[in-house]
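Support request, please re-run this one:
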Amino acid sequence: MYHEHGGSVSDVVGSRKGNLLEEITHNNHTFFICLFKKAKGKMLVENHYRYREGAPITEYYYNCGKVLGKLHQISKGYTSVHRRYSFFDKYNAEYIDKLIPGSLSLLKEKLVELLETLKGMDRNQESFGMIHFDYNDGNYMIDFETGQITVYDFDNSCFGWYMYDLADLWRSGLGWIAAEPDAGKRKKFMDDYFKTALEGYRSETGIENSMLEKLPLFIQVTLMENIVDSFEVMQNSGEEPICDEELSYLIKCMEDDIPYMGFFHEIYSCEEPFEYEKRNI
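Re-run finished. Output below.
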């Protein structure tokens, strides 16, 4: 869908039979396989978080927004044949209650409150559609000759609010300034970074100011996704649930209604970014 409409994504490769998806059975297990062309360039981490020579880093911020805006613009004109799941199919009170240990009752309460707020939100064509749901620099390549970004890993894609991906885009800026001890400077940087990324985004598609005002809410929703994912990974590996420093940090932000991932709050430490004391659960 995205590639044929001009989205900057890896193109899918057809099989010898001309299918985009092949079903293969091996050792009584069924596998569904699809193949994509390798995205051009390399990941930012492979370039040691250095951007391309001779270009300002703001070009990268702008392009991150622009590429996401194009994907969302394509989504707005998309009608699915086999519809992927919707946000609430996975994120609902029953599932959270089952997944998260009973000792974290305040966390459960806050997550359900968050879900209730989301249920009351508009889901029109301009605000709600197919989203990436994991938009960050681990899921795209950068061509360091041109600055072109190619997105992949749509495994988590679902129908949700475009603002969710924009909250992920906001979070993608944190690493550039995470070592700065001054909260005011961190805030200034994040405001500038997001302004530039949004300019890129709006060069491809519109977003209502009334939705942008919901950025703090959707940053909380990204925390919920991270928390749920952590407990799912523990459950799937058969481990007893444990709460490390990173997970404890997310839970604390959620329980205490600390906005913006605590990045401008006293909970944040530039020596131990996004960590909080472990808790027993």
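The beta strands are 12-13, 22-26, 29-33, 35-36, 128-131, 140-142, 149-151, 158-161. The mean pLDDT is 96.
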